Amino acid sequence: MAIEVRIPTILRTYTDGAKQVEGAGSTLDELFDDLDQRHGGLRARLVDEKGLRRFVNVYLNDEDVRFLSGLETPVKDGDTVTVLPAVAGGDR
After folding, report:
1. Domain limits of the chain?
2. Which of 4, 36, 1 is nearest to 19 (CA)?
3. How many other CB atoms sit within 10 Å of the CB of residue 13?
4. pTM
5. Using one digit for the tens of pLDDT, what is the confidence trace for 16-65?
């Protein structure tokens, strides 16, 4: 069994259109490294030199990883990671 990662529409160009992909690792950081090996360029859209990009929300089993341990959050087989771009704006 692997870790299921749900990919938002805007990033599916990196996954050949796949809505979800599988990866492996013991932390979110390792999982993103694994995904980048399979889907080149994906990690750079999620992480910068400071950690998770400001306008990217990542959830581990419906828990916001920013309130867990960020990139050091432990992950295991059977977990679900959801990546969501932050949405802002609206009518003035």
Report:
1. 3-85
2. 4
3. 13
4. 0.90
5. 999 999 999 999 999 999 999 999 999 999 999 999 998 999 999 999 99
User: Looking at the domain 3-85, which fold is it?
Assistant: Ubiquitin-like (UB roll) (3.10.20)
| The residue type at 2 | A
In the numeric block, which tokens belong to residue 57? 């929300």
Full DSSP string of the chain: --EEEE--GGGGGGGTT-SEEEE--SBHHHHHHHHHHHSTTHHHHHEETTEE-TTEEEEETTEEGGGTTGGG-B--TT-EEEEEE-------
Residue that has been written with the tokens 């994906």 in this structure: 42
